[in-house]
Specification:
The protein has about 350 residues and is an alpha/beta fold. It has 13 helices and 13 strands. The protein binds pyridoxal-5'-phosphate (PLP).
Amino acid sequence: MKLIREWIRNIEKYKAGKRKEDVAKKYKLKKVIKLASNENPLGAPPSVLKFLKEDIGNIHLYPDQESKELREAIARYVGMKKENITVTNGSDEALELFVKLFLDKGEKAIVPIPTFPIYETLIKIFNGRVVNIQLREDKNFEFEANKISEKIDERTKLVFICSPNNPTGNIIEEDDLIKILNKEVAVVLDEVYAEFSGISYVKLVNEYENLVVARSFSKTFGLAGLRLGYAIACEEVTDYLHRIKLPFNVSSIAQKAGVLALKDRDHLKRTVNLVKSQREFLFNELSGVEDIKVYPSRANFLLIKLNRNADEVVEELMRRGIIVRNMSNLKGLHGNYIRVSIGLEEENKEFLKNFIEIIKK
Ligand SMILES: Cc1ncc(COP(=O)(O)O)c(C=O)c1O
């Protein structure tokens, strides 16, 4: 249709991980294990489930437009002030708000690849220019600050850094991040997997007003279905984020769930411990398998390179009731790759057994 804006026309739809229900139906399976979207293997915190079952409160009334209670709770959790926090509909919305705030038509945004494809989609929606930097596989995809800095010119407004990076699992080192922050650009730091790495650079927001951080309740807190995330930025940027966000972007249910989830430190600890120990187990087991390469990861997933067709491996795993993500078509990856999320011990063992059987065939 002619009315559609010209630059929107080539944008592709995001391909999410397959849903358990759909795979169960398609392959006539009773049980399906989903290791495709980096969700929390322990599920949501019990206190949130109880609240959802027993007392979701006054949903006929509008939610708090400014999510004050949740922002206070988040501020305590990350060691910042409420004035640094914006609550969003998933971290996806925080990323969108950053692009909306900083990027003008035709301006450049740097995206090191391979990474989370939504950055590129957002840049295109706002008619910006994507400047990719290929992360080197032979260096375990490390962020090379000099290479990134060299690409920054007067037309560059944004640099996206995902740490730990999805799907490669590596983090950016602090001095590399600071090198980029010292340039005249806004740096979007995506820390949705930070809890699994134990490393966060949120505190740098106090020193660098050009740093904006996206965080999420979808991963460590097990609330992916509720859609809850947040932005951390200096007070001035936060004030603008509150001006441009839609007034009731986060439901009262999600706000309350977030407050409860942050109180349940036990669930958080159990999640992080489980992911770390199972990540080590799976990494060690996979490292001993011939003909594949597994990359070290600080997140809740592992990237695996195959020397055979990934479509076939993913399809066969799915037929056996295990969903993983085919990463072969992701920009910046050249070859056959899958990404597997860290699940419960029995789920990881089930994946391992079936995966090895399939690739040895
Ligand atoms: C790197 C990264 N950023 C952001 C998101 C979006 O997460 P959400 O909108 O659920 O917070 C994801 C989801 O998988 C992700 O992998």
